[in-house]
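Q: Sequence in, structure out?
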Amino acid sequence: MKLKSTLVFSVALFSIFSVSEIFAQSTFENVHALFQAKCTAGCHSGGSPSGNLNLSGTTADVYNRLVNVNPTNPVALGKGYKRVTPGYPYYSFLMKKVNSGLDVHNDLETGEGNTMPNNVNTLTNVEKELIRQWIIWGAPDTGNVYNENLIVDFYNGPGIPEIQAPPTPEEEGREGYQMRFGPIFLEPGGEFEFFQPYNPKLSAAKEITEMKGIISPTSHHWVLREIDAAGVNGLGSAPADGSNMLTQAYVFQHSNYMGVWQFSGSIDLPQGTAIFQDSGDVLLLNLHIPNYSQDSIIAATGYYNIYTQDIGSGAVEMKTSLAAYGGTDPFLLNIPPTGQPFTLQNHFTMPGETWYFWTLQAHSHSRGTDYDMFYRNSDGTEGNQFYEGFYNADYTFNQGYYDYSHPPILKNDEFIEVDMSNGLIFEATWQNNTADTIPFGFTTQGEMFVTYFQYTTELPTSVEEKEKPVSNVDVYPNPSRDNINLSYTLKNTAHAVVELFNLTGSKVKTIVNSVQSAGKHLLKIKSAEEELAPGTYMVSVTVDGEVTTKKIVSLN
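A: Exactly. Output:
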């Protein structure tokens, strides 16, 4: 999209100013001028202004009446709003008063009065957005905090619109709350990563049972963290630039992971597990998004729906963490410009601990061509492979290539128990066809070698107390071009049925149908002998009426 001229910007926003005056002013001076033009006449000036808010006077006068000042409306005051809460349009009563449909989740509610201005001087979307962006970017009294031309050009379109706001947990009839990042306007061909603290202002501690992330399809990732008080104070209220290495290091030091998304989806925690959230916890929203369009501005937005329950359910804590190549020094990662596949391994151990893994996912950038995961043997060699980077995003089939932008997320039906004294091996491959070594970097101009995972250090009670007749069902190697090994352990002597199905649900073969003794059993499925066509199959192990199913891929 061709950017509109400065003259169009000045006419659309403040026709009373000249071009030179527009660019001479700070963002808040432009907001202040808008108030003078649209809000002071008959409403917000003089000795008895509406809502006891006088918007006339100098920029300093008006600023001091707005930012971090309590509103007079009792409903808004009871919700903890300020007239302007820096960084938070949802907690800013001024924004709710002027919103008027700009954001469906930020309109006025019962008892909060009427839209402002309530006369003929209605605000355009461009003017409302000017106020919203000033608040998002920390509501400073000086400085130009964003490119105002992007707002004008976006609304004069065609821009790439915000993603549709999902229903809140309350609207779904569930307990919880919704958080939002943005919108942030991104120029054609641009890319950004930002961090912004968000205080959900909980009245009591909660257990999180599900988290839903909703992001633009072009997003690279959407991460939720918990950040300590020192981290909040250091970052401030405005979005912090994630391309800055010092910012990234600071965030890593002061925050803990809660969830990672590389496309919209729900993290529905296993029964008996929860993420614990104290009432005073502040969360950190992190969106990384490139704008692949070369002619349109994008309004980048992300939503988190957090579903909660009261503390005291007996749930065990679900933890979210990562393993990065180089450990505390990720800058050890460098991809040489050979034009050939280049593979590295990251050995991840925690001596003396046992972890129960629920989800695992890869993370690299655009030169990544594969990403695999293995159990690690006690002598440090590769054990069985349990994660194949060529799978699709929800790990349902082998698509034949690694998609770095939507890498596979392995969500285990049963927890994977790992003796972390042995640990895991993560293996990534890149191909650098440029003339320069590509170093570690947080944007797609650099590279990364990171594995995200969610795990517990104890099994939920519901899992421990259920005495399963069959356990430790595993298939390996998976995928395979030849023999596929199936192992499982019977608690007692029992009648076992092992069957192979294709994805249409048709049975391919009954492998076992007999009484077997207690203990571990190993079967071999020979792809060639069974004449298995390349594709995905399901193998089921049925013991005492309980069915355990595993997905297997034949490359024969």
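The chain has a mean pLDDT of 88.
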